[in-house]
Every structure is written in structure tokens, then in C-alpha cells.
Amino acid sequence: MSSTPIDLKQPTEVATSAAPTRGRKIIHIDMDCFYAAVEIRDNPELRGKPVAVGGRADQRGVLTTASYEARKFGLRSAMPSARAVKLCPSLILLPVNFEKYRVESRRVQEIMRSFSEQIEPLSLDEAYLDVTDSPAFGGVATEIARAIRQKIFAETKLTASAGVAPNKFLAKVASDWRKPNGQFTVAPPMVEKFVRQLKVEKIPGVGKVTAAKMHDLGLFTCADLQTWPIEKLQHKFGSWGVRLYDLCRGLDIREVSDEGERKSLSVETTFDKDLETVAACQAQLPEIFEDFTRRMAKAIQEPEIIKALVVKLKFHDFKQTTVETNQFKTPSIEAFRELLAVAFARGNKPVRLIGIGVRLATKKTEPASAQLTLDI
Ligand code: DCP
Ligand code: MG
User: In terms of Cα–Cα distance, which of 79, 101, 81 is closest to 92?
Assistant: First the structure.
């Protein structure tokens, strides 16, 4: 099965080889171990030590992030804190201080904005900038990225990494290449070679589940994906296959834009074999929920903006139905399980796709859609 993130802010678009990706200069900035870095800056005694930020081990908490020293022990975001403490007994585990990170995030975004008005923040610690028309540093995007990182450090004492490339996809991959406190440029002539060796796991939206499915199909790198015709990708990965076709070729025509406010966030999974019963559908929830929480933690900046939980089912005959709560509810497997039962009962036939997600309040909050709303 494949897990496909659906994000209204990032519509699936098909690039053609004539797409205007070559002439653009996109920078992706990503702060290094952001929450932990803020804590370490404010308490220098922590420097050089394994530090993580997250919930308590005795309360089933998870890590939001870990310092690079802690990562040497295998610690990662979303790992249960209890497991983290076992792997790294000397770990200094700090509680999450969300307001503090929000303040730093605003400062960093302001600095980035002083380099380009065309900026798209993705989360508290990440943003894209389009510097195609920037005259700074003779228009050399690599130098602009370096200057942004230097200014961030000068003003906040926090380090950032940067990726520079002709489009958003490659810039984001590149910012991870020289982490921490580094940067990497994928210049247009390098794109073809760079993308061919890229592991499928590096493609945004390829989580653990999808990566395993791809490996089963013999797909390990973008070069492998390039050998598949678009129809085959669509067949195996649904409508997302079209986007995969572009990404594995290093094509991405999405604009850097802060205008399209995110209205929902969800992941969906298409199954190789239809699920016959509601129990069979519910049995898939833990895995889908795991992908969903990973994506949520990264993308959503303020938990209180969740308006409703949503479950979508597509039946074997491609008819689909959506059920949502009519009020805020904390996302949990149990809550999605209930919604799923309601959605299944509407069709009572085999299911080919399950989607779970949240609807978000936009700044101009619109009324909840009455006809799909269910009070549970
Ligand atoms: N975060 C979270 N839960 C997750 C992932 C991230 O709460 N599952 C929070 C904590 C991170 C911040 O978002 O500090 C930024 O996420 P990143 O994925 O960019 O991770 P870091 O900045 O911590 O590390 P890196 O240096 O790899 O960017
Ligand atoms: Mg980061």
C-alpha cells in the first residue's frame, strides 16, 4: 500500500519538460535541531551534551527533536522518550516550550523576509525563498543563502542549513545534504545526475510505509522510478503517481507562495487488495495514523487551529465518502476508528483507499460544512 500526503496548499501539478524550473533560484532554509538548539543557546551548560526536547518518558511522551550529539545514539523526532532514555542514559530531556520557539521563529522569518518578499514558511523552522529576481550578491543564490545563514546566526545565535536549487523539491532535499550548519547547491547542470542517485526516501511524502512498498517493487532511487511509465506509477500510487513522475526527474513547478493558506492536512493510503470489512479497515489505522502524526508534527504550527477530524473512504467502485467531526477533537486512533465505522456503513462494500486528516481553521474562518458534519 502507499501512503500519500494530500495537501491543499500544494496541489498536484504536472510539469512538462518545458516547465520553467531551470531559470528559477529557490532557497530552502531549515534551522538545525531547532527546539533543542534554542534550549542549548539559552543554557550553555548543555552544549556538547546529548539533549532532547519532548514529553516525559513516564508519561508516554515522544521526542520533538534531539541535538546532534543525541542523534549519535540513534535518537530521532517522534521516538518515544522511554526508548530514547534507554538508548542514551545520559540524555538531558527538556520539556517543550512552544512559545519560546514561536518567538525565535518570528525573528528568523523576519530576517529571511529582509532578503526576499517572496517567502513561504512551511513550519516554525523552515521556509522557501524565491530569489530569482534578487539583485543581492550579483544575483548569486548560493551567496544569498550564505548571507541569510550568517544574519540568522548573528541575530539569534542559532544555526541554519540551506539548499539552493532551480525548484522547491530540489532545494528542500539540498538543505538536508550538509546539515548541520551547512549548505548545498544543485546548479541546473547538476540536476540530472543529482536526482538519479537520490534515494526514494528523500522524496517528500515517501514515509516508511511507501518506502517499503517501493523497495518491494524494486524501486530504490529516482533512477529506478524514472524507468516506470506514468500510467504504471498512477496505477500503483494513485493520483500522486503523476507527481512522482515529475519529482523523480527533478521537475517541480510549484511557486513559492504564502498566499494559499493551508486548509487541511491528511494522508491517504491505497491498498493493493480491497479491504472487505470495517474491521479490516480499522486494522490498518495504526500505521496510517503514524504517518499522519509525523506529518502533522512537522507541518502544523499551532495545535489549536485544528477544526475537525476527517475520514475519507474510496470504495472498490471508486465511489467515495467523507465524514468529519463537527468540532475540534484531539486526533487519536480511537476518534478516527469511530469516523471510519460511520463512513464504512454508508457504502458497506470493499474499500480501496482510506484517508485520515484534519480540517484547519483559516484566518478567515469559514462555517463548517453542514451536510457532511457528524456529531460524534
Ligand atoms: N518537530 C516536532 N515533531 C516532529 C518533528 C519536528 O515537534 N516529529 C519540531 C521540533 C523540531 C522542529 O519541529 O525542532 C523542526 O523540525 P525538523 O524536522 O526541521 O527538525 P530539527 O530542526 O529539529 O532538526 P534538523 O536539524 O534535522 O532540521
Ligand atoms: Mg530543522
Answer: 81
